[in-house]
Amino acid sequence: MNKSKNISEQSSRKKKSKGIAGISLIFFLIDKLQEAVYNALVNGFFGYIFTSYSSELSAYKNGYIVSYFKGSSKTGRLFRKIREYISGNFENSFILGKLRATVCGMAFLPLKTYGTFFLSFGIYTLLVYFFKTLLPATGVANIDDLFAGIIICIVALPIYASRSTLARAVQRGRITNAVFVDAFGYREENFENKYGGKKKHSGTSILLGLLAGILTFIVEPLTIVLYILAFLVITLVIITPEIGVLATLFLIPFLSFFNSPALLLAILVIVTTFSYFIKLIRGKRILKLELIDFVVLLFLIMTYFSGAITVGGIDSYYSAVISCFLMFGYFLIANLIRTEKWLHRCILALVSSATIVSMIGIAQYLLGLSVNDWLDTSYFYNISGRTTSLFENPNYLAAYLALIFPFALYQILVSKSKKEKALSFAACLIVFICNILTWSRASWLAMLITIVIFLIVLSKKTMRWIIGIVAAIPFLPFILPKNIVTRFMSIGNMADSSTLYRVYTWKGSLQMAKEYFWGGIGYGPDAFAQLYPVYAYAGIESAPHSHSLYLQILISMGIGGLICFCIIPFLYAQKSIEYLKMSNSRDSFLITFASLLSVICLLVMGLFDYVWYNYRIFFLFWAVIAIGVACIRIGKKEMSRCDIHKYSNEYAASVDINVN
C-alpha cells in the first residue's frame, strides 16, 4: 500500500517538474524572441537609420547653409564687435540699470508698505461703490465690487501688521520658499538686502492705492488685482527667463479661465522671448542651432507664409502668427534649459499641472457634470458623458494628458523616498483614470502603445506579460467594465456615428488635398472653412477641420509643409535613439525616452484627429520635443566632461612620497 502511494507521489512530482520545465522553456523562448527583436531593431537596418543623426549633423555643419551664415573670420570678428558694442551699451544703460535697481529694491521694502497700498485700495474701492450707489449717474454699483473691497481690506490687515520685508517673508514662508527656492532656483543670498536700508514709502503707497481705487469707476477690482499679478509675473520673467518657461508649462490648462487662452499663452511666450533676447545680447545666455533646430525654423517660416498667402483672409493670418509665436517656445526651452535641475523643474511643472487638471476632470465626471456632445448616445448608451476638465473638448484634454503621461511614468521610476514614490504613483494613476474618462479611443490606443514600448525597453521580461495579455483578450470582457470594452472595440466600427463622420470627413478632405496638393489653401480653420463645403459629403459640410493632423498640414501647407513636418519627428527620433544607445545616465535616459514616447503619443493621435486645432496642444508638442533636445544636450555635455576628467586622470603625472 505504501509502495503504491510512493509511486503515485513520484509520478505527480515528475508531472509537476515537467510542467515547470515546460513553462520555463516557454519563458526562455519568449525572452530569446524579445532579445532577438531588440537586437534586430538596434543593430539592424532600423538601428542604422535611427542612429545616424550625428553623421547628418556633421554634414549639416560642413554644408553651405552653416558656412554661409558663419562667413569668413573677418565677418565673424565684425559680428563679435557689434555684439560686444550692443552688450556694453545694454550693461551701461541708465534706464536698464535704474529699472533693475528699482525692481530689486522693491523686494526689500517692508510688507507694511504693501499692506498700506492694499488697505488704501480696498477703502477707496468701497468708497467708489457707495458713491455709485448714491449717484447712479456715475456708474452701476455692482455688489461684486463691494465684496471685492471688503476682501482686499481683510487681506491687507495682516500684511500691514507685519514687520518683515517682502524678501524675508518669501524666504520664511513654506509655500513661497518652495516656489522661489525649489522651483525658481533662487539662492539664499538673493534674499539679502544689497540696496540700502528699509524705506516705508507710506505716502506713495496711499497715493497708488487711491489711484487704483478710483480706477474701479471703470475697471473691476478683480481685474486690477490680476493686472498687478501679471506685472509681478512679467517682472520675474524679465529678470529670469527660465521662470517664464516654467510658468508657461504649468499654466497651459489654467488659461481656460480667461477669454483668449491662446493669446495669453502667446503673450507669455513673447515676454519670455524678449527676456531671453536681452540676456543673449548681454552674453548671459546662449543660442544653439543644429540640424533639427534648422528644420523647425524652416517649418515656422513655412507656417507664417501659409498664413500670409491664404484664402482665409486676416483670420487665417492671425492663426499663423499665433502659431509662429508659440513655436518660439521650442527655441526657448532648447536653449534656456541647460541644467538637470531646470529640466526636472520643467517635468515637475507639467506633471503637477496635469494632476490638478485630472483631479478636476474626475470630480466633474463623478458629479455628473460631464458632457455628451461628442458621443453617439444611441450606440454608447451606457456611458454617462465625457469629461473635459479645463479644456473645451474631451479630445483636447485626452491629447494633453497623453502627452504628459510618459513623464508621470518617469516620475515614479526616479522617486527616491517611499513618500515621493507614493505621490508619483498617485499622480500617474490620477492622470490615467482621467484619460479613461475622456472616452477618447485614439488617446487610449496611444497610451496603450506608450505603456507597451515603455515596459519593453525597461524590462526584458515584458514580452511574457504582453503574450499573456494577448492570450487573455477573450476574457477581458468579463474583467473590464462593459462600457470600456464596447468603446475600445468600436475603433473602426462604422455603426458609430462619430467614426462614420470621421471617415467621410477624411474622404472630402482628401478630395480637397488632391486639388491643392502642391501649395495648400493656407493656414488655419478659417481657410479650411472657406473651401471644405465644396468637397464635403452631404451633411458633413460644417466640419471644422479634417480630423487628421497629417491631412490638415497637407491641405494647409501643401506637400512641402507635410514633408518638412515629417522630417522633424524623424530627426528627433534619430537624435533620441542615438543618445539612448550611448547614455550612461539613467536619469537622462529616462527623460529622453519619456519625451520620445510623448511625441509618439501625439503622432498616433494625429492619425485620427487634428490635435493642433487647440493652440495649447500645439505649443505643448513643440515644448516636449524641446525638453528632449535640452536633455540630450545636457547629457552629452556631462558625458564630455566625464571623458575629459577620465582622460586627464589617465595621463596625469603621479608622485609618490614615502616617509620612512
Main traits of this protein?
single chain; 660 residues; mainly alpha; 27 helices; disordered C terminus
Number of strand elements: 0
In percent terms, what proportion of residues is strand?
Answer: under 5%
N-to-C span: 83 Å
What would you call the shape? globular
Low-confidence stretches: 651-660
Structural class: mainly alpha
Query: What average pLDDT do the residues reach?
Result: 81
The tally of helices reads 27
Structural domain tally:
2
Biggest β-sheet description: none
Helix content: over 70%
Radius of gyration: 30 Å
Topology pattern, helix = H, strand = E: HHHHHHHHHHHHHHHHHHHHHHHHHHH
How would you characterize the overall build of this protein?
By secondary structure, the protein is mainly alpha-helical. The protein has two domains: 93-239, no CATH class; 291-643, no CATH class. Helix content is 74%, strand content 0%. It is built from 27 helices and no strands. α9 crosses α10 (174-183) and α12 (221-239) packs parallel to α14. The radius of gyration is 30 Å and the shape is globular.
What topology does this entry show?
Layout: H1 2-43, H2 45-49, H3 53-61, H4 64-70, H5 73-91, H6 94-106, H7 111-134, H8 143-161, H9 166-172, H10 174-183, H11 202-215, H12 221-239, H13 241-251, H14 261-281, H15 291-308, H16 313-336, H17 340-366, H18 394-414, H19 418-437, H20 441-458, H21 462-471, H22 482-489, H23 497-515, H24 525-535, H25 549-582, H26 586-605, H27 615-650
In short:
The chain is an all-alpha fold and 660 residues long.
